[in-house]
Design a protein that fits this description.
heterodimer; A: alpha/beta; globular; B: about 900 residues; 5-stranded parallel β-sheet; elongated
C-alpha cells in the first residue's frame, strides 16, 4: 500500500515538526477508524500493513527524521504533565502498558456507545527507547513498579496523584480506585500479554481479538466509569508495540548476522558497544536520547535469533512502537 | 400306466425274495406247484428253449447251467423239471408262446414223454452222498441200494455203474442238481474221508451213463462258473451249456423281466406305448444326437423296454449291479418292481430319475439292500443331504428347480456306475423328460443352480458326478448361495460389509493410495442411510485430510439432483472435497447384485474355513481375484461438484466424467483428471488474492476451499491439502502474495529473485494442522533494502611479550597478499613487528580482506585455516606475516631452507645474548 501523496510531499519538504505531526496524524487516521469485532484481526493486520509504507520511508529514506524525534514530537509524558498541571483536582490517568493506536477504535466506540464525552483523542510520542522504564522516568518515577500501592505519591510530575500499578482484572482495579481526587493507574495490560502472545503462531491477530474483547467488556468500562467518577480521565500508554511477526525477514545473511549480533532478539540495545555498520540505508540507528545511548532497529525488519524472534515486541524505531493514543474522557455526571 | 399291472406277488407292501427254490417244506417250491402255474411266470428265453431242446428225445445231452447267482438258473431248472414231469403242459405253453412271439418253431419242439425226475437243491444238504439221493428218490432205489450193500466185502465205496444202469433201466430218470458247485466245493476231502474224491468219481460214472444211455439218464446240473472240478467232469461228455450269454440274452432277459414282473405286459398295445413315450423318445433322440438311420431302431428299443427306459436298464445291468454285490436278474426284478410300484402313476416311462431319493418307498430301499456297499450307502446319504441343501439355498424351489429331486436322483444313480460314473447333462436331461419336453435353457439354468448349491457334485470333464468327498468349491458356493447364513444379525456373516471391504480394497487398497485418499463405500440405502455398515473411522466426523472418495453403490437416476440433495442432507462439512465414484450406467445396486454378493460370501467363507483345508485357501484366492476383477471395472465414472445451491440442492451441477482407469489406479487417475481438466488456476488465484486482502489464515482458507462456493460460483475442486498448499506457495513464489509463517518467517519474493529460486526457497515451508491457523496469507509488503559491508572484526591487538625466552624476530615478508585494512592479528606471543600495509596502499583497486588466526597453532592447523579462507594456488596474498615465539638455530635454518626461491624475505628476530 503506497503512502498518500500529500504525506509523502510533506515528509520530503516540510520541517521535522510538520513531518512528524503529519506522520502521527496519518497513523491515527489509519488506526482509529471504527472496527467490527468479527473482522478485527484481519482488519487490524491490514492497517498495520498499511502503515508499513510510512515505516519503510522512515527506514530507507527519512531515517534522519528520527534524530529530531525527541525534539519535535510531543511526548506523552510531557503532554500528560502539562495536562495535569492545567487542570485542577479531579484528574485521573489510566496508563495501559503498550497500548497502541491499533486498539483505539474500541475505546472511541465504547465511549460513544456508553455516553462518554471525548475531549481530545490523538497520538503522542513515547520516550526513546519505547519502553516502560523511560516513560516512568519521564514522569518522574524510578520505575513502573515504584507506583505500586501508592508508592509514587508525592513524587513525579503528576503531583497529588494516588498511584498504583497492577495487572489485576478490570473489576478488581475498579475496586482499587478509591475516592481520592487524583489518580494515576498504570495497568500492565496489554504489555504482559505481549510476552505470551509474542510466541510463534500467535502475534497480532490473537492480540487484536483479545483487545477487541477486553476493551468492549463491561468490566473495562466499569473501571473507566469508576475513574471518571468526579474526574477527567486520560487514557494513554507508555509505548506502543510492533507486530514484528509481520515484519519481513532480513534476507541477507550478513545483515541478519549484524542485527543479531547487536540487538539479539530485541529492538534496541544499550550501550552501543559495537561498531555501527557500514550499511546504507542503515540497519540500526545510533541515537543518544534522554534515556539511553543506544542502537535502535530501524524500521520493520526481523531476523532469526535464538529462541525465535518475538512476534510482538517494542523498543525499536517504527511508527506504531512510538506513537501512543492520548484520549481524554469525561462522563456526564462524572466531572 | 396304460393299465399295466404287476403280478400279485409284487403288489404287497414288502417284496418277498424272488429266489427260486425247487422244493421247500411249505410245498411252495417251484417243483411243488403246478406246471401251469409255474410256466405262467416263465418266459421262453433262448436259454430255456435251448435247454428244453437239449433234453428232448434224440438229443439226450446233459445240460449244464453256468451263471452267477440270480441269473435264473434255478428258474430254468424248475422249468425243465416241469418239462419232464408235465410234457403236455409244457408243450402247450411252448405253443402259446410260439404264437404270441411269432416263432411257431417253439411249438414244434419235441418233448420227452413223462419222465421220473429227481431234483434236489444240493445246498440244502439233505444227503450225505449223491447216491443216497438217487437211492432215496428213485422207485427202484432201495432194491439197488440193498444189492450194493449186500455185496459184503466186494462192496465198493461208490455204487458201481452196473448197479446204476440197472437202476435207471428200471425207471429212466432225469437228475436235476441245483447248486451243484456249492455242494461239491463244500465237501471234505481227507485220507480218512475222501468224500469229494468219491463225489468226483460218482459224477464221472453218472456222466458216462448219461452219455452212453441218454434214454436212461438225463443229467442237468447248475454251477456258478466253469472252474470247479465237478463241472470239468461233466464237461468231458460234451454237455449242452446254458450260460445266459447268448446273442439275444439281453433281449431275452428284458422280456423275461417284463413277463416276470407284469401280468399283462403282453396285452399293452405298442401304439399306445409309443404315443405315451413319444416326448421322451424324441428328446432322447435329439439330445443324444442319434443319427436318423438309427431312429427306428431306438424307438423300437424304447417300446420293447417299456415301462422302463432302455438306458435305465443298460445302466442298471451293465454298470450299477456289476459294481455291487447284487444278484443280477433276481435283484433287478425286485428293484424294477419296487420303482414301478412307486412311480407308475406319475411317469409314462421309468428312468434313472425315478429312483427318488426323497421317497423311501421307491426302488431305492430294494436297491440298497442288494447294494451292500458302504461307499454307495454313503453316497446316497450325501446325495440326500445335497438335495436338502439345494432346497434350503434356493428361493422358491418349486418355481426355480422343479426337477430338483429328479435330477439329483438320476445323477446319484448314474454316479453308482463303475465305469463312466456320473452323467452328461444331456443324459440327465433325458432322464427327467417325461410326457413334456423340458426347455434346454431352463434345464441348463436349473442344473447349474443345483450344481452350484450342492457340495458333493464334482465336475469331471463335461460329466457331473456325485462323489463321497465334498467338492470344496461346490460346498463353498453352495453355502455362499444360502441366503439364510448371511445378513446383519449377530449370528450371521455380514456379506455386504465384506463386499464393501472388497470394493474399498480394490479401489483404495495399496498403501500409497490409502494415504492420499479415503475410499468410503456408501451403504446399500445410500440416499437415506449412507453410513450403515461403515467402519467407525470412515464416518465423516472422523475424516482426516485425505480426499474422500465416496463409492456410490448404484448409478443415480438423476445424477446431479440426487448427488446435490445427498450432499446437503448427508454431509455437513467438506462438501466440496468429496468425489463420487459412480458405477457403470445400467448396473444394479452393488449390494443387491446377487452374483457379487455370492462371490463376496464365498470369499468370506473361504477366509473363515481356510484353516480347515488348503483347498479353501486356494479358493479364497480364486474367488477374491474373481470378485476383485469384477469390482475393479465396475466404477467407471466420477462426479465432482461444479456449482452449489444449498436452497435448491436439485439445481446443483456436477462434473461427471469417465476416468477409464481400473482398480487401484482410479483414485490417482481421478485426481489427475480433476487437477488437469477441472481445476481452474485463475479461479484459485482469485480466491487466494481475495484471502490475502483479508489477511486470512491458511488454515481457514483451506477449510473454506473444502466447502462449496456460495452464490452459484464455480467450485474450485479440492485437490488435497498438500497440493493446495503447494499451489499457494507457487502463487507466493510468483510474487502475488506473501505468507507469514506464524510470525517466524515471512515468505515473500525478494527483490531480484526469480520465481523458481523463490519456489525452491519457499516450498515445504507451510506447516500442517494448527500451525496453518497461525499462518497468514497477506499482500506482499515493501521491504527496507540496505546495501553495505560487514564492519571489520574487532582488533586483536598483539601485546608484546616480555622477552625472556628466545624470540626470533621474523621479518614480515611481503608475500602474496596485498595491503589490507588494519594491522593483522599475530599468532601468539612473538613480539614481531606488526606494522603492515595500509588500506588503499599502492593504489590497488581490488578489495582485500584481512585474515588472521586467533592465536598460535600448529603448521597443520594453519594449512587447514588457509584452505578455509578460500586461498587457492592462484590467490594473491599480500603482506604475509608468520610469527614464531621461540625457535632454535637449527629450526630456523630448517625453516629458511624450505622457503620458496624467487622471493625475497625480510627477517627480524631477537637473539639471546649470553
Amino acid at each position: 500500500m503506497p503512502l498518500p501523496l500529500t504525506l509523502l510531499r510533506q515528509l520530503q519538504a516540510a520541517s521535522p515538526v510538520n513531518a512528524w505531526a503529519s506522520l502521527f496524524d496519518h497513523a491515527w487516521n489509519t488506526c482509529s477508524a471504527p472496527l467490527l469485532q468479527e473482522t478485527a484481526s484481519s482488519e487490524v493486520t491490514r492497517r498495520d500493513a498499511e502503515l508499513g509504507a510510512a515505516d519503510l520511508l522512515l527506514a530507507t529514506a527519512g531515517w534522519d527524521l528520527w534524530k529530531s524525534y525527541e525534539a519535535v514530537v510531543p511526548r506523552t509524558a510531557d503532554v500528560l504533565a502539562s495536562w495535569w498541571a492545567e487542570r485542577g483536582a479531579g484528574r485521573a490517568v489510566l496508563v495501559l502498558d503498550a497500548f497502541s493506536l491499533r486498539e483505539v477504535p474500541w475505546l472511541l466506540k465504547g465511549a460513544a456507545e456508553r455516553g462518554y464525552t471525548v475531549h481530545q483523542s490523538r497520538a503522542t510520542g513515547a520516550e526513546l527507547p519505547a519502553n516502560t522504564r523511560p516513560f516512568a522516568e519521564a514522569l518522574g518515577f524510578t520505575s513502573r513498579s515504584s507506583l505500586q500501592n501508592n508508592g509514587g505519591a508525592g513524587k513525579g510530575r503528576l503531583a497529588g496523584a494516588v498511584t498504583d500499578s497492577t495487572d489485576l482484572p478490570w473489576e478488581d482495579c475498579a475496586a482499587l480506585v478509591n475516592a481520592s481526587q487524583d489518580w494515576l493507574l498504570w495497568h500492565h495490560w496489554p504489555d504482559e500479554r505481549l510476552h505470551d502472545l509474542g510466541a510463534p503462531g500467535h502475534g497480532l491477530a490473537a492480540l487484536a481479538m483479545e483487545a477487541a474483547e477486553k476493551l468492549s467488556s463491561d468490566a473495562f468500562w466499569g473501571l473507566v466509569h469508576t475513574l471518571t467518577t468526579g474526574r477527567r480521565l486520560v487514557i494513554t500508554a507508555d509505548h506502543g508495540y510492533a507486530a514484528s511477526g509481520h515484519f519481513p525477514d532480513t534476507a541477507d545473511s550478513a545483515q541478519a548476522q549484524y542485527l543479531k549480533d547487536r540487538l539479539r532478539s530485541g529492538r534496541w540495545s544499550a550501550p552501543a558497544e559495537l561498531e555501527p555498520g557500514n550499511w546504507v540505508p542503515p540497519l540500526t540507528l545510533h541515537l543518544k536520547t534522554a534515556h539511553a545511548d543506544a542502537a535502535f532497529a530501524l524500521g520493520r525488519r526481523k531476523w532469526k535469533s535464538q529462541g525465535g524472534y518475538p512476534t510482538l515486541t517494542h523498543g525499536g524505531l517504527s511508527l506504531l512502537e512510538v506513537a501512543v493514543p492520548f484520549i481524554e474522557l469525561s462522563r456526564t455526571g462524572g466531572a | 400306466m396304460l393299465g399295466l399291472t404287476l403280478r400279485q406277488e409284487f403288489q404287497g407292501r414288502r417284496l418277498k425274495g424272488t429266489a427260486i427254490e425247487l422244493a421247500n417244506e411249505n410245498n411252495t417250491g417251484a417243483t411243488q406247484i403246478g406246471a401251469a402255474d409255474f410256466l405262467d411266470i416263465t418266459y421262453p428265453t433262448a436259454d430255456v428253449v435251448s435247454a428244453i431242446e437239449a433234453i428232448g428225445p434224440g438229443h439226450g445231452q446233459p445240460v449244464v447251467l453256468i451263471g452267477e447267482r440270480g441269473q435264473g438258473k434255478s428258474h430254468l431248472l424248475a422249468a425243465l423239471y416241469h418239462a419232464f414231469t408235465s410234457p403236455d403242459v409244457t408243450s402247450n405253453w411252448l405253443k402259446e408262446w410260439g404264437i404270441s412271439l411269432g416263432q411257431p418253431k417253439l411249438g414244434e419242439i419235441e418233448l420227452r414223454p413223462k419222465t421220473h425226475v429227481i431234483s434236489e437243491s444240493l445246498h440244502r444238504q439233505n444227503y450225505k452222498f449223491l447216491w443216497d439221493l438217487i437211492f432215496d428218490r428213485h422207485p427202484h432205489g432201495s432194491y439197488i441200494k440193498g444189492k450194493w450193500e449186500a455185496q459184503g466185502d466186494r462192496r465198493t465205496d461208490i455204487p458201481g455203474d452196473r448197479l446204476l444202469i440197472e437202476l435207471f433201466k428200471h425207471t429212466p430218470t432225469a437228475l436235476i442238481l441245483d447248486e451243484f458247485q456249492t455242494w461239491y466245493d463244500g465237501l471234505t476231502n481227507t485220507k480218512q474221508f475222501p468224500w469229494r474224491t468219491w463225489a468226483f468219481n460218482f459224477i464221472q460214472i453218472l456222466s458216462e451213463i448219461a452219455k452212453e444211455h441218454p434214454e436212461l439218464l438225463m443229467l442237468v446240473v447248475s454251477v456258478r462258473n466253469g472252474e470247479t472240478e465237478a463241472y470239468q467232469q461233466v464237461h468231458r461228455i460234451n454237455p449242452r451249456q446254458i450260460d445266459f450269454k447268448g446273442p439275444n440274452a439281453r433281449r431275452d432277459r428284458l422280456r423275461l423281466l417284463l413277463h416276470r414282473l407284469f401280468d399283462n405286459r403282453m396285452q399293452v398295445p405298442s401304439q399306445q406305448i409309443e404315443s405315451a413315450i413319444a416326448a421322451h423318445v424324441s428328446e432322447h433322440l435329439r439330445l443324444t444326437e442319434a443319427p436318423p438311420a438309427e431312429h427306428q431302431r431306438v424307438r423300437a428299443e424304447f417300446v420293447e423296454a417299456w415301462p422302463f427306459a432302455p438306458h435305465l436298464m443298460a445302466l442298471l445291468e451293465d454298470q450299477v449291479l456289476v459294481a455291487t454285490q447284487a444278484q443280477e436278474t433276481r435283484d433287478l426284478i425286485r428293484i424294477l418292481a419296487d420303482v414301478f410300484k412307486s412311480r407308475n402313476a406319475v411317469s409314462p416311462i421309468i428312468t434313472a430319475a425315478d429312483f427318488r431319493l426323497d421317497n423311501d418307498r421307491s426302488g431305492i430301499a430294494a436297491l440298497l439292500d442288494s447294494v451292500s456297499n458302504q461307499h454307495h450307502a454313503n453316497l446316497r446319504e450325501k446325495a440326500q443331504r445335497n438335495l436338502s441343501a439345494v432346497l434350503d439355498a434356493v428361493k422358491d424351489p418349486a418355481q426355480n428347480v422343479p426337477h430338483l429331486a429328479d435330477i439329483v436322483s438320476a445323477l446319484w444313480l448314474r454316479s453308482l456306475a463303475i465305469k463312466n460314473a456320473g452323467a452328461e447333462p444331456a443324459e440327465l436331461h433325458v432322464d427327467i423328460t417325461r410326457s413334456k419336453p423340458v426347455d434346454s435353457n431352463f434345464f441348463a439354468a436349473e442344473l447349474s443352480t443345483i450344481v452350484d448349491n450342492s457340495f458333493n457334485i464334482h465336475q469331471d470333464g463335461s460329466r457331473l458326478v456325485f462323489r463321497e468327498e465334498e467338492n470344496p468349491q461346490a460346498k463353498l458356493v453352495a453355502n455362499a448361495r444360502n441366503d439364510k447364513l448371511f445378513g446383519d444379525g449377530p449370528d450371521k456373516l455380514n456379506d455386504r460389509q465384506q463386499l464393501a471391504r472388497e470394493v474399498r480394497y480394490v479401489i483404495g487398497g495399496t498403501d500409497t493410495v490409502a494415504q492420499a485418499f479415503r475410499v468410503v463405500v456408501l451403504g446399500a440405502n445410500w440416499t437415506t442411510d449412507p453410513w450403515a455398515g461403515a467402519e467407525e473411522g470412515d464416518l465423516p466426523a472422523q475424516w482426516d485430510d485425505r480426499i474422500p472418495l465416496l463409492v456410490v453403490p448404484e448409478p443415480p437416476d438423476k445424477v446431479e439432483a440426487r448427488l446435490g440433495t445427498w450432499l446437503r442432507e448427508r454431509l455437513q462439512r467438506r462438501r466440496n472435497a468429496v468425489r463420487f465414484l459412480l458405477p457403470r450406467e445400467g448396473s444394479a445396486n452393488l449390494f443387491y447384485d446377487r452374483d457379487l454378493l455370492v462371490l463376496a460370501r464365498a470369499v468370506l467363507l473361504a477366509e473363515k474355513w481356510k484353516t480347515q483345508s488348503p483347498e479353501f485357501k486356494k479358493l479364497h484366492t480364486k474367488y477374491e481375484r474373481e470378485l476383485r476383477d469384477i469390482l475393479k471395472r465396475r466404477f467407471d465414472r466420477f462426479a465432482i461438484l461444479a456449482t452449489w445451491n444449498f436452497q435448491y440442492p436439485s439445481q446443483c451441477t456436477f462434473h461427471v466424467e469417465s476416468h477409464k482407469a481400473e482398480g487401484a489406479q482410479i483414485p490417482e487417475t481421478v485426481d489427475a483428471l480433476v487437477s488437469k481438466n477441472l481445476f481452474v488456476s485463475e479461479d484459485f488465484d482469485g480466491l487466494i488474492l481475495a484471502a490475502a486482502l483479508q489477511n486470512e489464515s491458511v488454515g481457514k482458507l483451506l477449510r473454506e476451499m473444502q466447502e462449496p462456493r456460495p452464490g452459484g460460483e464455480d467450485c474450485i475442486p479440492w485437490l488435497g491439502e498438500t497440493l493446495m498448499k503447494e499451489k499457494l506457495v507457487r502463487i507466493c513464489a510468483h510474487g502475488k502474495i506473501a505468507i507469514n509463517l506464524r510470525g517466524m518467517e515471512y515468505l515473500q519474493v525478494r527483490a531480484g529473485e526469480n520465481e523458481e529460486t523463490a519456489w525452491k526457497r519457499m516450498r515445504g515451508k507451510l506447516g500442517t494442522g494448527k500451525h496453518l491457523d497461525e499462518t497468514y496469507v497477506l499482500l506482499p509488503q515493501a521491504v527496507p533494502h540496505t546495501e553495505g559491508v560487514v564492519p571489520p572484526q574487532p582488533l586483536v591487538v598483539p601485546t608484546p611479550n616480555g622477552g625472556v625466552g628466545g624470540q626470533l624476530p621474523l621479518n614480515p615478508q611481503p608475500s602474496v597478499m596485498g595491503g589490507d585494512a588494519g594491522p593483522t592479528a599475530g599468532t601468539g606471543q612473538s613480539p614481531i613487528s606488526t606494522s603492515g600495509g595500509t588500506i588503499f596502499g599502492g593504489g590497488v583497486t581490488t578489495s582485500v580482506r584481512q585474515l588472521s588466526t586467533a592465536g598460535a597453532t600448529s603448521a597443520l592447523n594453519l594449512l587447514g585455516k588457509v584452505e578455509s579462507w578460500g586461498i587457492t594456488p592462484g590467490t594473491q596474498v599480500q603482506d604475509l606475516q608468520v610469527r614464531v615465539a621461540n625457535l632454535t638455530g637449527a629450526q630456523l635454518n630448517d625453516l629458511l631452507k624450505k622457503l620458496p626461491d624467487g622471493i625475497t624475505y625480510e627477517l627480524t628476530l631477537n637473539k639471546e645474548e649470553h
